[in-house]
Design brief:
It is a single chain. With 199 residues, the chain is an alpha/beta fold. It folds into 2 domains: 50 residues, Orthogonal Bundle (Helicase, Ruva Protein, domain 3); 141 residues, 3-Layer(aba) Sandwich (Dna Topoisomerase Vi A Subunit, Chain: A, domain 2), CATH 3.40.1360.10. 43% of the residues lie in helices and 14% in strands. It is built from 8 helices and 7 strands, in the order αααββαβαβαβαβαβ. It has a 5-stranded mixed beta sheet. The protein has a two-stranded antiparallel sheet with strand order 1-2. Helix 1 crosses helix 2 and helix 5 packs across helix 8. The relative contact order is 0.10. Bound molecules: zinc ion.
C-alpha cells in the first residue's frame, strides 16, 4: 500500500533536497497536507514562480540576484582589484555579513567533483577567465571550502591561471579542517581572509 500518486510526487520532490531522506520527506509532505490552507498553497505557488522567474545568476559574478547585474558588481565603491572566488551564493552572503571584505566576488556554482559528474565545464570558470582579461583585477583570492573537493578546485584554478599576470592567494587555515565557508563565524572568516597566502 503506497501513498496516492500526487502525495508520492511531493515526497519525492522533498527527497531531492540535500540531507532529506524518505522519512523527513514524508513528514514534510504530510505536514503540508495537514496544515496548508488554500492561501498557503497559493502563496507557495507564487513564491516558486517568483524564484523561477526573477532569480538569476549575476551576469558578471554569478551571485544570485533579481537584477541582471548584482548590487555588489554595480557598486562603484567596491575594490575591483580583488576578486574572491567562492563556491556558492551563500558564501557571498556570509562574507558580506562580516563587512571585512570590500572587493568583488566570483561564484563558481559548486566544486570539481568527478564522482558527481562535475567537471570544469559545469562550473563558472570560463566567465572567470573572461573577467580576468580586464587588468583592473590584481588579486584573485581562492576561497573555496577547505574540503578535499574545495582544495582540488583551488589547485585546479591555480594551475589553470598560472600564466595570467595576477596575484593568486588562498584563504588561510584559520578555518577548521574541512571548513565550510558558509558555516564559519565572523572571527574565523576574518582570520581566514586576513591570513591568506600567496600561491
Ligand atoms: Zn555580480
Amino acid at each position: 500500500m503506497d501513498y496516492p500518486d500526487a502525495l508520492n510526487n511531493l515526497i519525492e520532490t522533498f527527497m531531492r533536497y540535500p540531507g532529506v531522506g524518505r522519512k523527513t520527506a514524508e513528514r514534510y509532505a504530510l505536514y503540508t497536507i495537514s496544515s496548508f490552507k488554500d492561501e498557503d498553497y497559493e502563496a507557495f505557488r507564487t513564491t516558486l514562480e517568483r524564484v523561477e522567474n526573477e532569480i538569476k545568476p549575476c551576469e558578471t559574478c554569478g551571485h544570485l540576484t533579481d537584477r541582471g547585474i548584482c548590487p555588489i558588481c554595480r557598486d562603484p565603491s567596491r575594490d575591483a582589484s580583488k576578486i574572491l572566488v567562492v563556491e556558492e551564493s551563500r558564501d557571498v552572503i556570509v562574507i558580506e555579513k562580516t563587512r571585512t571584505y570590500d572587493g568583488l566576488y566570483h561564484v563558481l556554482g559548486g566544486v570539481l567533483s568527478p564522482s558527481n559528474g562535475v567537471g570544469p565545464e559545469e562550473l563558472s570558470i570560463k566567465p572567470l577567465l573572461e573577467r580576468l582579461k580586464n587588468d583592473e583585477h590584481k588579486e584573485l583570492i581562492l576561497a573555496t571550502n577547505l574540503s578535499d573537493e574545495g582544495e582540488t578546485t583551488a589547485l585546479y584554478l591555480q594551475r589553470l591561471l598560472k600564466d595570467i599576470d595576477i596575484l593568486i592567494t588562498r584563504i588561510a587555515y584559520g578555518m577548521p579542517a574541512g571548513g565550510n565557508i558558509g558555516y564559519a563565524d565572523e572571527i574565523t572568516l576574518n582570520k581566514a581572509l586576513e591570513g591568506r597566502k600567496k600561491l
